[in-house]
Amino acid sequence: MVDDDLDAVLLTRALEPYHPHCRYLRTAALRTAALADPQRAGSAVAARGEFTVPESCCVRGSGHFGALEFAICLDQLMHFTLARAVHGRLIEPFGRWTTDDYWQRQLSDVAVVELRSRFRRGVCPSSFHGELEIRDRGRREDPSGSLIALEISCRFWDDDGGNCSGDLRVALTDLPPAR
């Protein structure tokens, strides 16, 4: 399967849990050195997406890209990126996961622990871009079992200079057994 086709299939599946009117991520592609050279698996993973927010999912007529839309867009790009990284076995600790392992855990075991957003200039919600990078990851044991902690940075911008950025800490729990 060509990467573009794979990206479209994984994006569709990653967005499936969202209500149709809240599916803001239109296209997405993974960017990593591991895609070009499998010997570099483990290097940083980044993704880029194209978004549109035709209307806020909960605030009538706001007309702007606010904190809620920021969180939803980040969440959607994160789930695509994680699914793509798992599918391609691109970074540790996902080397032993299957895509089915991820889909089974997408909602119940991917927990946002912390989210920070910084708005510098208003982003036009009708058409904008986003990037996400998994900056740090680690596996550790805790009293309830293993977990994976991810540190993620992101930014969103439009073609007229609107921009915002943020950081996300995510915990993945109930890890699949080693195979």
From TrEMBL:
Pfam family, one: FcoT
Family matches, as InterPro entries: FcoT_ThioEstase, FcoT_ThioEstase_Rv0098-like_sf
Alphabetized GO MF terms: lyase activity
Lyase keyword on record: yes
Documented EC number(s): 4.3.2.11
Keywords of the record: Fatty acid metabolism, Lipid metabolism, Lyase
Catalytic activity: a (3R)-3-[(carboxymethyl)amino]fatty acid + holo-[ACP] + H(+) = a (2E)-enoyl-[ACP] + glycine + H2O
Top-rank taxon: Bacteria
Gene3D superfamilies assigned: Rv0098, thioesterase-like hot dog domain
UniProt entry tagged with the keyword Ligase: no
A biological process from GO: fatty acid metabolic process
Similarity comment: family membership: Belongs to the FcoT family.
Protein's UniProt name: (2E)-enoyl-[ACP] glycyltransferase
Native species: Wenjunlia tyrosinilytica
